[in-house]
Amino acid sequence: MAILNIRIIGDPVLRTVADPVTDFGPELARLVADMTETMEDVEGAGLAAPQIGVSLRVFTYRIGGVEGHVINPVLECSEDFQPDEVEGCLSIPGLGFPVRRYRSTRVTGVDMNGNPLSVEAEGMLARCFQHETDHLDGILFTDRLEGEDRKAALRSIRNANYDSITEQTTAKRAKTVGSSFGGGSFGAATSGTGSFGAAG
Length: 200
Fold this sequence. Notes:
Blueprint (H helix, E strand, L loop, with lengths): L25 H16 L4 E3 L9 E6 L2 E12 L7 E5 L2 E8 L4 E7 L5 E7 H14 L10 H12 L1 H15 L26
Antiparallel strand pairs: 1-2, 2-3, 3-6, 4-5, 6-7
C-alpha cells in the first residue's frame, strides 16, 4: 500500500466523468487499499479515485465507524433534504460551505471482488455518498452552492492567496506520500490533493 498525492481544483481529472470499472483483480485491490490509506492519512471522510488522478468509478469512505468502498456506485436518494451542513473537500483545501444534500441515500454497486453491495445511509454518511459520487461525475461541492455562498467560494478560489494555501497543503501532504511499503501504484506519481469532510 502507498499514500498517494491528491489532485487540487484546476486539475482536469476532477472535471471528467470517470469510467466504469471493468477489470477486477490485483490492480483494483491495490487501488482501493492505497485510496483507503491515503484517505486515513489526510483524515478524510471519503476519497474518490479521480482525486488521486485515476478516472475510474471508485470511492472509499469512513464516517462514524462505518467504512468501506464502492465500485461503480449508483445512488437512490430520498425526495426530502437534510439540514444544510458545512462541507469541505480535500481537493479544495481551506474552503468549507453549507451544502444542500438529500436526507437519505442507498448506494448500490460492487466491491473490489465484483460482489454486489448495497448500503443505506442517512445524515453524514448519506452526505458523503452524494459528495463522492459527485466527484465521479466531475462535480465539486462548490458547484452545488448558490447565491452568496457560491460567489464567496469562487472569489476565494480566484484569490491570489488561495494558490499559497494549496501549495502549503500539497507540501504538507507530500511528506507522507509513498511512505508505505510497496510504493508505486495508480496515481503514485501524480500531484495534487483529496476529498469530503476535512477542509484542508
